[in-house]
Design goal:
seven-stranded mixed sheet; single chain; about 30% strand; three-stranded antiparallel sheet; globular
Length: about 170
């Protein structure tokens, strides 16, 4: 219970995950995430074994590294399981280099942006039995302009002023 509170106090909206899993324990998943202490109390009183799902704070995103990568990410807030390869890095979104939400933004690297996804927060238990832990507790760094995403987010749909035709974006 105290860890869910702590994360909420750090600016994260939290919600319960199935114990020892990454799947949401609520009907609406990360859309149920909150910083409301009363709701957090209800969830973790119901089942203190819940893992903690967290939506990155406003104007932040998580880099989710799932394998070897050549991307030179700078030192920032970090948490992970016991492996050195799989880890989560927290960055402030840089308006001059916006990193999109989604899978394989770089090889072996996904991202989770505010309001669009979530990560497992320490001290959640990974399905393998490994425990997520904070590895570097420091302020989140502004994402550098020198690292460009391999996957670029393109506006689509009505009201954007942009029409997509195959791989070409027409304005």
């Amino acid at each position: 219970l105290t860890w869910a509170h702590w994360w909420a106090e750090q600016g994260w909206a939290v919600f319960p995950l199935v114990p020892r899993e990454k799947e949401p324990a609520t009907k609406n998943g990360f859309k149920d995430a909150t910083q409301d202490i009363d709701q957090i109390n209800l969830w973790w009183t119901k089942n203190p074994e819940y893992n903690i799902g967290g939506v990155p704070p406003l104007d932040h995103f998580m880099v989710d590294i799932d394998g070897p990568t050549d991307v030179p990410f700078p030192a920032t807030w970090e948490h992970s399981t016991s492996t050195e390869i799989k880890r989560h890095l927290l960055f402030k979104q840089n308006p001059l280099n916006v990193v999109p939400h989604g899978g394989k933004v770089w090889p072996n690297v996904d991202t989770r942006c505010h309001g669009k996804g979530y990560v497992c927060l320490p001290p959640s238990v990974h399905p393998s039995g490994a425990v997520y832990a904070i590895k570097a507790q420091r302020p989140a760094e502004m994402f550098p302009t020198s690292i460009k995403p391999d996957k670029v987010s393109k506006p689509r749909g009505k009201g954007t002023g942009v029409k997509s035709e195959g791989d070409t974006t027409v304005v």
